Each structure stands twice: as C-alpha cells, then as structure tokens.
C-alpha cells in the first residue's frame, strides 16, 4: 500500500537526514506563513474561525498563532490555518497547485505545543508535512481542480496527519490508519468561484483540524483503509479528473525534496494570475504610460488557469467581494496599472468598487495559450496598445517568486516585515522562525506574533 511507504518514510526520517538547504527552505516557508497570518490578524480577517475555535475551547494544549489563550490543539490549528490562508498570500507549489505550508504549519505549531516539542522537532515535522502535501498534489497535476476540488483541502488532512503523527511519535502502522481516516475528510469545493463567498480561506484550517483529529482517532484504536490513496474508491479515483501517477509520491524519498520547489507569493491573489501581472509590469517598464490612454490589453493565459481567474464576471463587473477580486485577472491587471502595485491594500471594500479600475479592466482580452507543464509554472505574455499607436510587449518565463524565479532571503524578509506592519519586533520574530531548529520550544515565536498582532 502506498500509504504504508509514506508512513514508514515519515516515521523514520531524522533532521540529520534533511539537507541544510531543505531545512532552510522549510524555515523560509514557515516564516512566510507566520507573516501572512500576522497580516490577516492585523487586517481583521479570519474572525469567524477565531470565534468558532475559541468556542470549541478544550484542554489548554496550544495557542493559535497570534493568540494568547490556549485551546485544544485541533481548535488552535483551525484558527491558525484560516489566518495563514485568509489573504491568499501564502506559498504555492506549482506542480501540485497546493498551499503546502497553510496545512502544515497549523498542525506543526499546535501539536508541537501539545507535545512540548523542540524547535528542531517542529521543523522536522513541518518538512515532512510540506513533502507530503506537495507530493500528493503532484500525483495528479491539476486533477483535483479539474474535478472542482481545492487540492489544498484534498491533500491537507494527510499532510496534517503526518505532522501530528510525527510529533506524537506514532509508529508507521498507526500512522497508516491515521492517513486512512484523514482521507475521508478530503474535500474542499471550488464552488466559491461562482459566488462572493470566501470558503476557500477556511479549507486549510478545516484540513489541519481534520488531520489532527484523524491521528487522535487512530491513536484511540480507530482504523482507516491502507488503500486510501490508490484504492478504487480512494481519493484519486473519487476526487481527481486527470491522469494519476502514484510513483511521484514515493520515488526519491530522501533525495528529491519538494520544499525546494514551493514558490513564495509577491502578490496577495491567486497564483494563476501572477505570471500575467509580471508580464504586464514588464510591458510598461521604462515607458511613459498614462492608463487612460490604453486601448487594448491582450494577455495569453494557460487554459487551466482561465476557469479560476477569468470567469464570466471578470472584466465585466466589479468583483463581488474582496476575495472575489483575488480571482479576477482583468480587474487585478487594471489595479496594477492604475496603482503601480498589487498588495494587501488592493483588495479592500473601497478598492474593488473603483470605477476607474473597472474601466481599465474592460480593456483586457484573455487569449488562451496552452504550454507544456502545469498552469502555475506557465510563461506570461502581455501586449498593450496605446492611443498614440505604440504597442508595448511584456514576456516573462514564469512568475516572480516561483521556484524558477525565487524571492531571495532579503526579499522574503521585506515581505514579512511589511506583513507585520514594520513592527519593531518583527525582525526578532523573523530571526527566531528562521532559527527554529535552535529554539527550545515555540514560546518565543508565539509570544512575538501575539504581541505584533494580538487576537481580538
């Protein structure tokens, strides 16, 4: 059974088995997601999940990120997971099209507190969680999305179960049962794309909650199917609509590390539009362009991306909500041209109602262009025609922040400091997350995050 191979690997790896570059990559992704959670808390997002998590209470096992009151570990993971993903500013693995840290960090931090784990133990578990999430998604690239399922929510319970099982010192047999149980909570509908709902933001929180719950059920004696992955009613048979290659999950354990392939977002919007934003920026760079003089904007977009960022409402009417705006490519292109940037201030109630941005969005024409490889790793192209006859062209080989064009440590820290509102304590928090392997426990990280963005 494939889950047995995964479990045996996950229970046997030590931190010494993880190359230094991979440890650093994991720490970078933890830092980025701590920052997105802090930003979400500062800006008032994720309140519903916090209310529910606080109401669940439970034994005081773990504080949510930015929280001061200890809850049960599953409740803490719920609140943290929603915060990490609330702004859609957290990392993405292009091949798997999953937000890997959003389902890994919540379990690692919550169960890490519950089990009194050291920073090194939390970092090891997080590395395994990232590997699990990315490999499970890459088994069927875009397969979950093609069926209308959010891949992060589908693989998230498994990743969280691996993290929790590792920190709980499970043997491989018990972890197999935990994975089998976790599979029954894999879901996450993409129906929000046709509405003004923000249910996608909830998926990492519920996935982390369910993954931890699965480990507790397995530890209590509940059993799960070992064939949860490859079985004729397993997650790929039930939830994907593209070819499946399970060798992608198991081949190269210990030699191929997917944490090195996770991209860090420079824009707080759907990853599938990032390369277009970069192409538009490249087109206007160095030119004197007055936005009102733009007559036409043609962008080439991968066919797998258009259903998610070029829906029937895009370019026709204003976004239906701030979250809807994050999946509106024409509107986001227009905001970039109007404001010179796309950042957390772009997607506010006041901003999405701007008539000038909608006017420019209506000049955007989307042309589908198939390319080799996954949509999130596709190249970008933009052609902008101006009233004076000039034609500006922008071509980029991939999106900034992706594995092919990564943000360096300085750029990552700048993003983190911005998410922390440039609080005086943010540099110390960054240093502690990046140096997590040397921390006695998570206390200092949690204290600093709570001080910068205290929970309501």
Descriptive report:
Strands 4-3-5-6 form a 4-stranded mixed beta sheet. 48% of the residues lie in helices and 7% in strands. It has helices spanning 2-12, 20-42, 47-56, 73-85, 100-114, 119-138, 143-146, 151-167, 172-182, 203-219, 235-239, 247-250, 274-284, 306-309, 322-325, 329-339, 349-352, 355-361, 409-419, 426-434, 443-452, and strands spanning 92-93, 262-263, 294-301, 364-368, 380-386, 391-396. The protein has 456 residues and is α+β, with helices and mostly antiparallel strands. α5 runs parallel beside α8. It starts with a helix and ends with a helix.
How large is the count of helical segments?
21
Uncertain segments are none
- How far the N terminus sits from the C terminus, by CA atoms, comes to 46 Å
Number of strands: 6
Order of helices and strands: HHHHEHHHHHHHHEHEHHHHHEEEHHH
Cross-sheet strand order for the largest sheet: 4-3-5-6
Helix content: 40-55%
The major beta sheet can be summarized as: 4 strands, mixed
């Amino acid at each position: 059974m494939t889950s047995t191979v995964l479990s045996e690997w996950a229970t046997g790896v030590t931190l010494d088995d993880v190359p230094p570059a991979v440890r650093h990559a994991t720490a970078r992704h933890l830092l980025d997601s701590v920052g997105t959670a802090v930003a979400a808390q500062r800006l008032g997002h994720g309140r519903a999940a916090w209310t529910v998590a606080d109401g669940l209470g439970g034994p005081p096992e773990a504080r949510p990120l930015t929280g001061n009151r200890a809850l049960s570990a599953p409740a803490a993971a719920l609140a943290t997971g929603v915060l990490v993903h609330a702004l859609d500013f957290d990392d993405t693995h292009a091949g798997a099209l999953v937000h890997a840290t959003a389902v890994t960090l919540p379990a690692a931090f919550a169960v890490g507190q519950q089990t009194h784990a050291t920073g090194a133990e939390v970092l090891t578990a997080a590395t395994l969680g990232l590997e699990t999430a990315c490999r499970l998604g890459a088994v069927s690239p875009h397969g979950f999305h093609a069926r209308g399922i959010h891949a992060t929510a589908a693989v998230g319970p498994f990743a969280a179960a691996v993290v929790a099982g590792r920190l709980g010192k499970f043997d491989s047999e018990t972890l197999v049962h935990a994975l089998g149980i976790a599979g029954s909570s894999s879901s996450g509908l993409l129906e929000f794309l046709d509405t003004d709902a923000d249910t996608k933001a909830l998926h990492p929180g519920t996935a982390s909650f369910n993954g931890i719950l699965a480990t507790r059920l397995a530890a209590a004696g509940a059993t799960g199917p070992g064939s949860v992955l490859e079985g004729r009613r397993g997650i790929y048979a039930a939830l994907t609509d593209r070819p499946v290659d399970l060798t992608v999950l198991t081949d190269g354990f210990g030699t191929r590390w997917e944490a090195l392939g996770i991209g860090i977002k420079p824009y707080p919007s759907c990853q599938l539009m990032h390369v277009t934003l970069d192409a538009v920026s490249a087109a206007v760079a160095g030119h004197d362009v007055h936005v009102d003089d733009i007559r036409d904007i043609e962008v080439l977009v991968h066919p797998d991306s258009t259903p998610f960022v070029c829906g029937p409402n895009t370019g026709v009417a204003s976004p239906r909500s701030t979250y809807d705006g994050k999946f509106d490519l024409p509107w986001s292109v227009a905001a970039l041209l109007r404001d010179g940037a796309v950042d957390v201030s772009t997607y506010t109630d006041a901003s999405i109602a701007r008539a000038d941005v909608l006017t420019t969005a209506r000049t955007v024409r989307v042309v589908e262009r198939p390319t080799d490889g996954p949509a999130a790793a596709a190249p970008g192209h933009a052609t902008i025609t101006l009233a004076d006859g000039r034609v500006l062209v922008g071509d980029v080989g991939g999106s900034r922040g992706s594995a092919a064009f990564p943000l360096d440590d300085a750029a990552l820290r700048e993003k983190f400091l911005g998410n922390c509102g440039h609080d005086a304590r943010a540099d110390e928090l960054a240093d502690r997350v990046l140096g997590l392997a040397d921390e006695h426990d998570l206390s200092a990280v949690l204290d600093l995050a709570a001080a910068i963005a205290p929970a309501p």
